[in-house]
Specification:
Radius of gyration: 32 Å
Helix content: 40-55%
Bound molecules: phosphoenolpyruvate, magnesium ion
Shape: elongated
Number of strands: 33
Largest sheet: 8 strands, mixed
Distance between the termini: 33 Å
C-alpha cells in the first residue's frame, strides 16, 4: 500500500531534502531541518502523489488515509505534549501547500486549525491570554472561510466582494468606530465580538455554518490546500513557469507556534544573503506580535533583522539584533548552519513564541540575476561551491536581466524622485501607468510599455506582473509576494512606496504632490527604489567585471560552440564582445534593408527589372560592388573566426516597390516607363511566396545571381588575405530540398573559386554547406551530406513547414493554442522536441552517417533559447547560433547542458 503521510519532529522524521518530488520543497526541507536538530514544530506531510490520487478520484481521499493521518497526528501530539481537539491542552495545526518547485503565494494556507467552541476556553486558560486566542480565532475564520469555504468550492464573488474582504471590512469598521490605528489596538473583548460577527457573516454570505468540529476543520483545510493546486493563480503561474499540471502539491500539517502571543512573540522572513543584490549579509524582516502572513501581506512595515541592513524605509524601527540579542544570535547560527549544509542561499521563515525560536521553513531563495551572479562568485571564492556548481547557479534567462538596461545615472542626476519605496527588483523600467492586472496585460498585447501600480502586493496579479515592464506598490516589504515573484522574473520592482496615494476607482495616483492618470509615463529605478515623473534614459549594464569573470568559468565547462546571427560588422563586433565564436548566419539580403541601403537596393532593383541576361549581368556587376563591400567588412570584423554567408534567400518581388509613387520614382531613375516596373512586379507576384521562388531556386533559374555572390565572397576573402588577415568564409545555400540543387550550385562555387585563385593568386579556404529547413532535406540528409560539408538547421522554416503554421501569421491563433493547452510553448521560440526534434535527430544521424565529420549548427531563432540549446547539445550539434544579445545566454545554457550530461 502506498505511503501517503511522512512525519517530522523530535519523535522521528521519515523524509529528507532529496525527496522534493514526493514531499514538495517545503515538506522535504522541514524534514531535513528536523533531522539537523533545528527547532522545527512537529508535523507531517501529505504527499504530492496523494494530491494526484485526490484529483483522480474526483476530490476523495483513499480509505487508508484516515489511519495514516491518525498515527502521524498522535506522533505530532507526543512531540508537542498537546492534543488536537483537546478541551484542556489543545494543539492547533496549520495546513500549508508546498509543490516541488516553489510557487510563492500562488497556493493556499490555513492557520490555527482546531480552534472551536470546545478548545477556546482551554487555550485561554493555558495561555492566560484571551486576546491572543480570539485574535487567532478571527484569523482562522477569515482564512478558512476564504480558502476552504469559498475558493475551494469554486465560488467566484464579484470584485471586492469575497468573504475575506467582507470580513476585513467589518474589522476596519470596528477599528474606525473605536478610533484605533493598528490591529494590535483591538482588545480581547473587541476580538471576541468580531469573531461572533464574522461567523454570522460567513453564514449569511456562504450559506453554511462555520465548522466547529476539529476533525471537520482539519480535513477541510487539507482538501482545500490540495484544491488550491488548481486555483486560478496557481494555474497561471504554472503556465508561465512551465510547471507540469501532473506534479501536484504536497500538504504540510504542522503544529502551530505563535508569533502573536504578545510582546515577547514575533514572526519573520529572512534570506541568508541579500536576494536583490547577493550581498553576503543576513537580510530579513520581522514583526512583533504578528503571524506569518502579516509580514508578507504588507499590513505593517516590518522591522529590519539587523543594524547593517537597515534602509530608508525601516531605519526608525528597531532590529531583532538589538531588541533580542540571544535570539538573533541563535537565528544567525542557524543561518550559518543552513548555508554550509545546503551550500546555497536559503529563504527562511521563523516564529518566536514567548521568547523561543522556531523554524517554519527553509528553501533555496529566489533571487535576481544580479544576486545569482554575485552569490555564485562569492560562494566560489568562499570555497562553499566549486566552478561547475557556480555555473549551475545562474539560470540562463537571468543573464538576460544582467544584460538589461538600468536608468542612466546622468539622466537621473538632478531629477527629483516623486516617491520612493523599497528596491525589490533591480534594473530600470519606464512605461505608462496601469492600475489593474487586466490593463497591464492589454497594454503588453498592444506592444506598449507599462508600469503596474497597485496598493498592495496581491498574488492574483500574477498575469499583470508578468506583462508589465515594472511594478510599483504602495505597501509591502522586500519579502512580499510581489517582490518575490518580480525577482524570480528579473523584473524591475519597487514595493512599499508609502507616500503613494492610489485611487483605483478613479484610475489615479498622487505622488510628490502631483496627480498621475492611467497612461501617464513614469520611470522606476528598481535598484534604488526611486520613482520619477516621465521617461528617463536607460543604459546597458554589460561592462560588469564579475559578469566577465563568470563567463570565463562558464566557457571552461562548455563543449558546444556558440555563434551569432549577424548581418552587419557592428552586430558582428557586439556579438564577438559577448563571446560569439563566429557567425552562424549572415543574411545577405539585410544589406538591402534599412539606413544606408539605398544604393545597394537600387542596384538590386535594376537587376530584378532586367529583361535580358545581358542586362542582368551588367546590373549584377554594379550590385557586386556593394555585396563584396559588406561581406568584406563582416569577414574583417570576425577575422580568424568562421562566417557562414547565406546566399540570397527571399523572393525577388519583395524588393520591387509596391506603391505607384515609388514605382514611378524607380522608373524615372532607371530611364524606363513606370508601367514596365509595375508589370515586372506583377509578374513576380506569387500566391505563396514563402514556398515560392526563393533561396536556392533563384539561383537555379538565374545562375548568374549565385555566381555574383560567390565571386564577391571569394574576392573579399582574397583581398583580406592579401592585407594579412585570416578570413574564414563558409558558403551556405538556403531552402534546399534535393542534393542536385546543391550540386548545381557547388559547380559554380568551384569554378569561381578557381577563377579568383587564378586572378588574385590567393587560394581561399572555405566550406560549402546548406541550410536544413525543409522536412524533405531532413529525410534525405544522407544524400545532402554527400555534397554539403556542413548543415545548419533553419528551425524557423523547418518549424513552419513541419507544422504547416505560417511563421508570419501564427500570432493570430497561437494564444488560443496556448490557452487551450494544445501547445505548451510557441514552437517558433522553443524547438518542438517531440515533432520537429525528430526531424533534426534523423538529419543529424543520416548526415553524419555519410560524412562523419559533418559540422552541424542551428541558426533559427530557437538557437538562443535555453531549452532548445539543451536539446541541440543532446543531439550532438557542433554549435548554436543566435542574436548577439543572446550569445551569453546560449553559452551558459550550453555549459549547463554539458554539466548535466556529465552527471
Ligand atoms: C530559418 O529558417 O530558420 C532561418 C534561419 O532562416 P530565415 O529566418 O532567414 O528564413
Ligand atoms: Mg529560412
Amino acid at each position: 500500500m502506498a505511503k501517503y503521510v511522512y512525519s517530522f519532529g523530535a519523535e522521528g522524521t521519515d523524509g529528507n531534502a532529496t525527496m522534493k518530488n514526493l514531499l514538495g520543497g517545503k515538506g522535504a526541507n522541514l524534514a531535513e531541518m528536523a533531522k539537523l536538530g533545528m527547532p522545527v514544530p512537529a508535523g507531517f506531510t501529505l504527499t504530492t502523489e496523494l494530491c494526484t490520487v485526490y484529483f483522480d478520484e474526483g476530490g476523495k481521499f483513499p480509505d487508508s488515509l484516515k489511519k495514516e493521518v491518525a498515527t502521524a497526528l498522535a506522533q505530532t501530539e507526543k512531540c508537542m505534549g498537546m492534543k488536537y481537539g483537546d478541551a484542556e491542552n489543545p494543539l492547533l495545526l496549520s495546513s500549508r501547500s508546498g509543490a516541488r518547485q516553489s510557487m510563492p503565494g500562488m497556493m493556499e494556507t490555513v492557520l490555527n486549525v482546531g480552534l472551536c467552541t470546545k478548545t477556546i476556553p482551554g487555550l485561554i486558560k493555558k495561555s492566560g491570554n484571551e486576546r491572543f486566542v480570539y485574535d487567532a480565532y478571527r484569523r482562522l475564520i477569515t482564512m478558512y472561510s476564504d480558502v476552504v469555504m469559498e475558493k475551494a468550492e469554486d465560488i467566484e464573488p464579484e470584485e471586492g466582494q469575497g468573504i475575506r474582504q467582507q470580513l476585513e471590512k467589518i474589522m476596519d469598521e470596528l477599528k474606525e468606530s473605536k478610533g484605533y490605528k493598528s490591529d494590535t489596538d483591538l482588545t480581547a473583548a473587541d476580538l471576541k465580538r468580531l469573531c461572533e460577527a464574522y461567523k454570522v457573516k460567513v453564514k449569511e454570505v456562504l450559506g453554511r455554518e462555520f465548522p466547529d468540529e476539529p476533525e471537520d476543520q482539519l480535513w477541510g483545510a487539507v482538501g482545500a490546500v490540495f484544491k488550491s493546486w488548481n486555483g486560478r493563480r496557481a494555474l497561471s503561474y504554472r503556465r508561465i513557469e512551465s510547471i507540469p499540471d501532473e506534479w501536484g502539491t504536497a500538504c504540510n500539517v504542522q503544529s502551530m507556534v505563535f508569533g502573536n502571543m504578545g510582546k515577547s512573540s514575533a514572526t519573520g522572513v529572512a534570506f541568508t544573503r541579500n536576494p536583490a543584490t547577493g550581498e553576503n549579509k543576513f537580510y530579513g524582516e520581522w514583526l512583533i506580535d504578528a503571524q506569518g502572513e502579516d509580514v508578507v501581506a504588507g499590513i505593517r512595515t516590518p522591522s529590519p533583522l539587523n543594524e547593517e541592513t537597515k534602509n530608508d524605509q525601516n531605519r526608525h524601527l528597531s532590529s531583532l539584533e538589538l531588541e533580542w540579542p540571544p535570539l538573533y544570535k541563535e537565528l544567525d547560527d542557524i543561518r550559518a548552519k543552513l548555508e554550509t549544509h545546503y551550500t546555497d542561499m536559503q529563504d527562511i521563515e521563523f516564529t518566536i513564541q514567548e521568547g523561543k525560536l522556531y523554524m517554519l521553513q527553509c528553501r533555496s531563495g529566489k533571487r535576481t540575476g544580479t544576486a545569482a551572479l554575485n552569490m555564485a562568485m562569492d560562494m566560489l571564492a568562499e570555497r562553499l561551491i566549486d566552478e561547475p556548481a557556480a555555473v549551475m547557479r545562474v539560470a540562463p534567462a537571468q543573464l538576460d536581466e544582467l544584460l538589461h538596461p538600468i536608468v542612466d545615472a546622468e539622466a537621473e542626476r538632478g531629477v527629483k524622485a516623486v516617491v520612493s519605496g523599497l528596491p525589490a527588483g533591480p534594473g530600470g523600467a519606464f512605461g505608462r501607468i496601469v492600475f489593474t492586472s487586466a490593463d497591464a496585460v492589454a497594454a503588453a498585447k498592444d506592444g506598449k510599455k507599462c508600469i503596474l501600480v497597485r496598493e498592495e502586493t496581491n498574488p492574483e496579479d500574477v498575469e499583470g506582473m508578468r506583462a508589465a515592464d515594472g511594478i510599483l506598490t504602495a505597501r509591502g516589504g522586500m519579502t512580499s509576494h510581489a517582490a518575490l515573484v518580480a525577482r524570480g522574473w528579473g523584473k524591475c520592482c519597487i514595493v512599499g512606496a508609502g507616500e503613494l496615494k492610489i485611487d483605483l476607482a478613479a484610475r489615479k495616483m498622487i505622488a510628490g504632490g502631483k496627480t498621475f492618470k492611467q497612461g501617464d509615463v513614469i520611470t522606476l529605478n528598481g535598484t534604488k527604489g526611486l520613482v520619477y515623473d516621465g521617461e528617463l534614459a536607460m543604459i546597458d549594464a554589460t561592462e560588469n567585471p564579475r559578469f566577465q569573470e563568470f563567463m570565463k568559468i562558464v566557457d571552461k565547462q562548455r563543449t558546444m560552440g556558440v555563434r551569432t546571427n549577424a548581418d552587419t560588422p557592428e552586430d558582428a563586433k557586439t556579438a564577438r564582445d559577448f563571446g560569439a565564436e563566429g557567425i552562424g548566419l549572415f543574411r545577405t539580403e539585410h544589406m538591402f534593408y534599412g539606413v544606408g541601403s539605398d544604393n545597394a537596393l537600387f542596384a538590386l532593383r535594376k537587376m530584378i527589372l532586367s529583361d535580358t541576361q545581358e542586362e542582368r549581368v551588367a546590373a549584377l556587376g554594379e550590385l557586386a560592388v556593394f555585396v563584396k563591400r559588406d561581406i568584406k567588412a563582416t569577414l574583417e570584423a570576425m577575422d580568424t573566426l568562421p562566417v557562414t554567408i547565406r546566399l540570397l534567400d527571399p523572393p525577388l518581388h519583395e524588393f520591387v516597390p509596391q506603391s505607384a509613387a515609388a514605382q514611378a520614382e524607380l522608373a524615372q531613375a532607371l530611364g524606363i516607363d513606370a508601367e514596365a516596373v509595375k508589370r515586372r512586379g506583377e509578374l513576380l507576384h506569387e500566391t505563396n511566396p514563402m514556398m515560392g521562388h526563393r533561396g536556392v531556386r533563384l539561383g537555379i533559374t538565374y545562375p548568374e545571381i549565385t555566381e555574383m555572390q560567390i565571386r564577391a565572397i571569394f574576392e573579399a576573402a582574397a583581398e583580406l588575405k592579401k592585407e594579412g588577415k585570416d578570413p574564414r568564409p563558409e558558403i551556405m545555400v538556403p531552402v534546399t530540398c534535393a542534393v542536385a540543387e546543391l550540386d548545381v550550385t557547388k559547380e559554380i562555387a568551384q569554378r569561381v573559386h578557381a577563377e579568383v585563385k587564378a586572378s588574385t593568386g590567393v587560394d581561399v579556404d572555405h566550406l560549402y554547406g546548406t541550410m536544413i529547413e525543409i522536412p524533405r532535406a531532413c529525410l534525405l540528409a544522407d544524400r545532402m551530406a554527400e555534397t554539403a560539408e556542413f548543415f545548419s538547421f533553419g528551425t524557423n522554416d523547418l518549424t513552419q513547414m513541419s507544422f504547416g503554421f505560417s511563421r508570419d501569421d501564427i500570432g493570430g491563433f497561437l494564444p488560443d493554442y496556448l490557452d487551450g493547452n494544445i501547445l505548451e510553448v510557441d514552437p517558433f521560440q522553443t524547438i518542438d522536441q517531440s515533432g520537429v526534434g525528430q526531424l533534426i535527430e534523423m538529419a543529424v544521424k543520416k548526415g553524419r552517417g555519410t560524412r562523419s565529420e559533418l559540422k552541424i549548427g542551428i541558426c533559427g531563432e530557437q538557437g538562443g533559447d535555453p531549452a532548445s540549446v539543451d536539446f541541440c547539445f543532446e543531439q550532438g550539434l557542433t554549435y548554436v547560433s543566435c542574436s548577439p544579445y543572446r550569445v551569453p545566454i546560449a553559452r551558459l545554457a550550453a555549459a549547463q547542458a554539458a554539466l548535466k550530461a556529465k552527471k
